[in-house]
Amino acid sequence: FLKDEYGLELREDDEHNKKKGDWNREEKEDQLSRLEQAKDREKKLAEEIAVKDFDHQEAERIIEEMANFNKYCENVVWTTIFCLMNKGRFNVINAGAYGVGKSRGTKEIVDSWIKLDTIQQITGHITPAKMFDMFGLGGSIVVDESYTLFTNAQIKHLLRSALYDGNVVWTTKTDERTAFFEGSMIFNTNVLNNRNMNDSALLDRCFINRLDLSNAQIIEKKDSNYRPDRDIWKQIKNRLLVIRNTSLKELDEKYGLTMAECDYVDEFFNSRVRISQSRISMRSFHRVKDIFQRTKWFFGDLSKELLEFAGNLAENYIFIGGKK
Fold first, then answer.
1. Which residue in 145, 143, 156, 63 sits closest to 100, CA to CA?
2. Distance (Å, rounded) from C-alpha 59 to C-alpha 65?
3. pLDDT confidence band for 155 (50 / 70 / 90)
4. Which of 42, 175, 261, 294 has its CA at 20 to 30 Å from residue 242's CA atom?
């Protein structure tokens, strides 16, 4: 017997299952081919962009635009942008009720403003087999409204492997497949449990945005007169294209944190955790440092104002499971 993507057992000699397996292999090969072509197109676009860091006024306008774009949920927007840099692992879980801003700060940005074919997306129910296949393709993955995230033990097992060292194994009674996931993920979910140590280990590998808006805040979002600034969104996309197609070595040489900035991050982190009884781990510091580093990658600088901006953002990710 073999298990299909829904976990149902099927006879190995069933001709239908053989055809289905052949079709799945062909589909995956086609997906890989299309993804490689999309990467080539993206690289060519990046090469045509004149690299330019943002000045003080431009940085202010971008920060204001992000705050207005997804009011009271700008953390979702910024963690999406940082994840889509596709540099190292930057995994995000956005947890909250329907209609608060999870999809707007993730899926809408990808669909309407960033528009890159190299970003994988899935909406709704996701099976363990589908999750494994997405890991095999790599890159940035956005999973919208996935209620199976913390209710399916197999998916949680795959996620822990993918988010820990990237080595993922999918096992059936007669087969074992492996994949190495080098990308980052964004999960939007309505359910976020933390029942045991395994759940805590998974949460500790993610930037968690817990969205709990009041009725007044929802009404204010609804009545907003915000209109997108297309020029700013074009600048954001161009900056992301450049970062995505620049090596980590080059980014660190040009935009790595200075000794003074590292000292600032150390003191920022220590001053917050000394007075708190909430749980932290070594990853807590790395999450905070990553926020400061990606802020500098994006803006090209860490001025006094941008240090304050990065600090306000980083405070949400110091403790395991996100800011309560």
1. 145
2. 10
3. confident
4. 261
Q: How far is CA 177 from CA 1, 198, 224, in A?
A: 16, 23, 49
Q: Please provide the DSSP assignment of 210-279 as one string.
A: EE---HHHHHHHHT------HHHHHHHHHHHHHHHTS-HHHHHHHHPPPHHHHHHHHHHHHHHHTT--S-
Buried b (16+ CB within 10 A) or exposed e, 228-239: ebeebbebbbbb
Among 4-18, 106-120, 158-172, the range scoring the smallest mean pLDDT is 4-18
| Beta partners for residue 95, in sequence order | 189, 210
Look up the pTM and report it: 0.86
Rounded CA-CA distance 293/287 in Å is 10
Output the CA–CA distances (angstroms, integers) from residue 275 to 109, 288, 308, in the order listed.
Answer: 37, 17, 20
Q: How many CB atoms lie within 10 A of CB 98?
A: 8
